[in-house]
Design brief:
heterotetramer; A: TIM Barrel; 8-stranded parallel β-sheet; 4-stranded antiparallel β-sheet; 8 helices; globular; disordered C terminus; B: alpha/beta; Elongation Factor Tu (Ef-tu), domain 3; 2 domains; 7-stranded antiparallel β-sheet; about 20% helix; about 30% strand; binds flavin-adenine dinucleotide; binds flavin mononucleotide; binds FE2/S2 (inorganic) cluster
Chain lengths: ~325, ~290, ~325, ~290
């Protein structure tokens, strides 16, 4: 029997497959047994109620999608009261994703969701915030460090920092998150994009721009996961465009200790349980005893070290 | 608006729900029995479907994984109302209009091919105990959504009148189907000048005066929504409307499919795929 | 007859379709009449001879490609002596793409290629450079400003700054390029990405990482083109994932005055002449007199101004 | 290595070249005449092709736009040597091995389907005036690349010996084709123990001693490359080798297809799609 359990610091997962924030909810329990998953990750919750962005909130682009949902939220109190208890009946660790506009608010919600039943807090620092004139904390090392330090002070739960691809400084941001006290990195959120309807000449999203996710994001997020795994000593969780077992394996080889699956669940709601079985089968066929032997096994020794942190192409 | 509707997925799942044989939402590959154009724009797709997915409610829908056919490569699934569900014969029917990439691909499906469908999804129409006279007013693909109500009314022995509106008589679908199901069908068309709001209002008022109407059901037209909201308010007749919105997940996770509703003096957002597609008529807002 | 001529500052194009640097050479004259194109854009040339990166230099990713060619170059002297004269027989304006590792070298090559027969210089500031520890000039406003100012001093030819998507500061970088003296912006170059062969566990590119181009890049580069068109008064040239006439139209609506076509030429070498004809037909069918009426006609008035410069998603 | 080779695209185009009727590279959709598996791994694809693309040289190739078939979705085109070109019958032949996504898709092509091909591309083999005795040594798909040389030798009335190497006799293709073209064919296989370097060397030395060899041509094997380089150097016999490299554009623009060559005491890079795929035997480097 192949061992597919992984440890992300103190958080133990019976397999490395979990959903990505915002693409999962307890509603998926209508389709399959959610106890199969490595972990559960909630939609990002904000301190106060938020209505979200105008519709249309999603659109298709060549084999992938854009979204500008805008984090509608019923607020932290509602979340702690109504949502966290729903997950009591499930066995996988519960990861709660939070976001806020300022470091103070961020700390406040972080404290608020540090309650029994929560295994770790995913810190969504990839959203525009008002303190930094609309830039996300995770776009810069300095702001990443500051917000992570702020959160580290107010909770004992593991903190997973979720990075953004909207930056040219991924390794620096990764190191800043680690210095600030992150216990793991989630790499990554969506990439700012746009689509226009040529008939109406209107942007296809009500919010003009939105985040790219799905297969088109994979080579970008995989590169980031690889860069992060080289840059930090804390575990990296790969996220972006995963739809097949080869995608999962690619992230693990690059150095991710686990992965999150988002968009693929929309077109194939059974994808996560299937990936778990396929990963087991793949490892068996390739004669791995444990998934841990695959993690970080990329054969990059022949390439010059200097290019590893190259930040631009070609 | 209570009763019968046992839409399991609309509530937080209880532990018992997690046993493999009780998942209410199924993702299965059905086989195309037939897929025929029934007039200029509309196609009727008949799938051979396993019985476990045919425990449906009128107003519910499936989320269809359209094939990469006809040059297109639709990424999302496409939501389609259940036009008919027949556990006895193992059939699932969809009536659809070709509008874009996904429906164009659907129109290319041939007998014997597979099609992945996810469902049944969403919260359907309610028929309260004691109601006797139901009025359906629909136009366009809305007719597809409302047809299963006639099936339910027939089963329950209720009277159902269907006012079917279209641009021209050739465009009217599902009229035969409504008749088969014992509905009292009234056709109105733009080309004959009978589909105007004044004419509809007169007809509906007459029906209220004559036999009474216990509930309105509609779908698909702003004009009809406004008319029925007004008549409903005047006469205290409840009603429901099925709304549309673009969907990604179809099962309540992504929050992309919200519509604004008036409720308790405020404007709130609800998910068409989960709390909907059927909403209270008076809560619905024009679009 | 629909008018499809455009002006990019002082450079007049008989149509808005031109090739992207590095995806075009005089070899394409074996396939069709290069006089059909709006302009010719050469592969980036560097001051000195460069060998380029190890092979494999390209790989496929889901419906798109990665490359790490590494700018092999025979050097500026060879270029001026051997390549520029080749284009004398063609009528479209010749755009020469240059790059260098330091601002001084950049200025030197800029002077060197400012010769008769060259209509404009495309400044490829999207490549890693040694002065900024491997970061490309175009990743930051400050370095963009400095290099553009340096070049502005040494040439009277129009300067087109080619931006990179490997940044979180696109509008700022665009404004910096304009302040530094750019006459147009090309938006954009490729996005740093990675792919791993799961069987060999080796990176699919000899250089480990490379740039994403093709359809997957389109929503990202389109967003950048839109942001740039809002941010600056100089013309924007859209580039990234263009393969169909709808793609061209989308960029023009977003505010691009012309477009460059790269990867699509690899799978469909006739794509540029086809796009020119299809654009004419599209404009005619949509009742436009001139392509200039389409440029920047995006109907974004209903969306809040504040989101226009939003830099992160969702 | 001068002569006959009038590969237009290898030089900077002269103005006259830009007239629409003289573009040497064509992108055309051919029709599949047949596409059959000829043994475990190899397929023979016969296309019906317009005559303007059949003005080919042995060693040139086409860049094929593989269809999205068999689950795959190959993005780049795939380079394939010309196995046979027949202006008279309007046929273009490819002999290919199924190795990945693109060739898997090719194998699914059915008679009557279209396939886009770009070409003819690259610089082919040269046969210098005065040469009489040519030796081809090839293995695997290299046989496909070298077969048209026999066609050219036949036309020019030259002697061509083809040493065809394979794992086992069942794997040997194009032997009949070589024979048809009047070549003197020698089969060597691993399973019969005849394909070893020593045996080949003995056979080649014998041939040199007996009738002489004016040029070597090879493709596809490091072992054969080394052997022929050594024999060529010893006996002063020139030679050519066709090399492979991954391609994006196929026509010289992208610089992805370079191979290292030894020339003038230095290591230089040349494009397989343009200066190649055929290179001087002594310049080629093992890989
Ligand atoms: C609950 C529900 C039930 C429906 N029932 C039916 C039905 O029975 N018959 C029928 O013909 N149509 C029905 N529709 C509309 C149907 O979903 C759309 O016509 C279809 O998605 C269009 O896809 P397309 O690719 O052809 O069009 P495109 O315009 O290319 O689609 C682009 C995107 O927009 C979405 N979209 C476009 N139009 C609509 C729409 N009206 N509603 C929701 N999403 C849309 C698509 O799903 C896709 O994501 C229903 C919609 C909903 C929400
Ligand atoms: C000039 C030339 C002539 C060739 N002639 C023949 C021939 O006559 N018969 C034949 O069977 N094969 C020939 N090949 C090899 C053939 O191009 C590859 O087998 C084919 O591209 C594999 O594609 P795939 O999608 O099946 O494999 P994958 O491994 O899925 O391909 C992935 C990528 O690698 C490239 N690739 C993989 N193998 C090779 C290779 N050996 N050479 C170049 N690119 C490769 C593919 O083109 C594609 O871009 C030739 C190659 C070259 C360069
Ligand atoms: C509809 C949608 C909503 C999302 N909402 C959130 C969110 O609330 N918080 C967050 O951190 N990421 C959010 N994301 C990003 C995903 O978690 C994930 O990082 C991204 O989609 C890339 O993974 P994928 O390609 O597998 O979808 C959302 C993505 C989508 C598509
Ligand atoms: C093989 C290849 C080589 C490239 N070389 C260069 C280059 O030398 N200079 C440059 O500025 N951009 C270069 N690019 C980037 C393209 O010019 C273009 O910006 C990018 O590919 C996006 O456009 P596309 O999606 O249409 O290909 C190269 C791209 C490819 C694919
Ligand atoms: S479609 Fe995802 S929540 Fe409704
Ligand atoms: S494949 Fe592009 S240069 Fe050879």
């Amino acid at each position: 029997m192949v061992d597919i359990a992984v440890k992300l610091g103190s958080v133990e997962l019976k397999n490395p497959i979990m959903p990505a924030s915002g693409t999962f909810s307890e509603d998926l329990a209508g389709v399959f047994d959610l106890d199969l998953l490595g972990a559960h990750v909630t939609k990002t919750v904000t301190p106060e109620k938020r209505i979200g962005n105008p519709t249309p909130r999603v659109c298709e682009v060549q084999g992938s999608m854009l979204n500008s949902i805008g984090i509608p939220s019923k607020g932290a109190s509602h979340f702690v009261r109504e949502i966290i208890p729903v997950y009591e009946i499930f066995s996988p660790p519960l990861i709660v994703s939070i976001s806020a506009n300022t470091i103070d608010e961020f700390a406040r919600i972080c404290e608020k969701v540090s309650v029994p039943g929560v295994a770790a807090i995913e810190v969504n620092i990839s959203c525009p915030n008002i303190e930094e004139d609309g830039k996300a904390f995770a776009m810069r090392p300095s702001t990443t460090l500051r917000v992570m330090k702020g959160l580290r002070e107010v909770t004992d739960l593991p903190l997973w920092a979720k990075l953004t691809p909207n930056t040219g400084e991924t390794p620096d941001v990764a190191r800043a998150a680690e210095s600030g006290g992150a216990d793991a990195l989630v790499v990554s959120n969506t990439l700012l994009s746009m689509a226009i309807d040529v008939k109406t000449r209107r942007p296809k999203l009500g919010n003009l721009m939105g985040g790219l996710s799905g297969p088109a994001l994979k080579p970008i997020a995989l590169r980031m996961a690889y860069q992060c795994a080289k840059a930090v000593d804390i575990p990296v969780i790969g996220c972006g465009g995963i739809a097949t077992v080869e995608d999962v394996v690619e992230y693990l080889i690059a150095g991710a200790s686990a992965v999150q699956v988002g968009t693929a669940t929309f077109t194939n709601p059974m994808v996560m349980p299937h990936l778990i079985e396929e990963l087991r089968a793949w490892l068996f066929a390739e004669k791995f005893q444990s998934v841990n032997d695959l993690i970080g096994s990329v054969r990059d020794d022949e390439a010059a070290d200097s290019v590893v942190f190259m930040e631009a192409a070609p | 608006m209570e009763h019968s509707l046992t839409n399991a997925t609309a509530r937080v799942p209880a532990k018992s729900r997690l046993k493999p044989d009780t998942f209410p939402i199924h993702d299965v590959t059905c086989t195309v029995k037939s897929n025929e154009q029934i007039n200029g724009e509309y196609y009727l797709l008949i799938l051979s479907a396993p019985s476990e997915i045919l425990d449906c409610r009128p107003g519910q829908f499936f989320h269809l994984l359209c094939p990469s056919k006809g040059g297109g490569n639709p990424f999302f699934r496409r939501p389609m109302s259940i036009y008919g569900y027949f556990p006895a014969s193992g059939e699932l029917h969809f009536l659809y209009k070709v509008v874009g990439e996904g429906t164009r691909a659907m129109a290319q499906l041939e007998t014997g091919e597979g099609l992945k469908v996810l469902g049944p999804l969403g919260t359907g129409f309610t028929i309260q105990d004691g109601w006797q006279n139901l009025l359906v007013v629909a136009r366009g693909v809305g007719l597809a959504t409302l047809t299963p109500l006639a099936q339910e009314a027939l089963q329950r022995g209720l009277n159902l009148t269907a006012i079917c509106s279209a641009r021209s008589p050739e465009m009217l679908m599902s009229v035969d189907r409504f008749r088969e199901l014992g509905a009292n069908v009234i056709l109105v068309t733009d080309s004959e000048g009978s589909s105007g709001v004044e004419n509809l209002e007169r007809m509906i008022e007459a029906q209220i005066a004559q036999s009474g109407i216990d509930a309105f059901y509609t779908c698909g037209s702003n004009r009809l929504l406004k008319l029925l909201q007004r008549l409903g308010a005047q006469h205290g007749i409840p009603g429901e409307i099925a709304l549309e919105q673009q969907m990604a997940c179809g099962i309540g996770m992504c929050q992309c499919c919200v519509r604004s509703l008036r409720r308790g003096g405020k404007i709130i957002h609800e998910r068409v795929c989960k709390e909907g597609p059927v909403f209270d008529l008076q809560e619905a807002m024009e679009w």
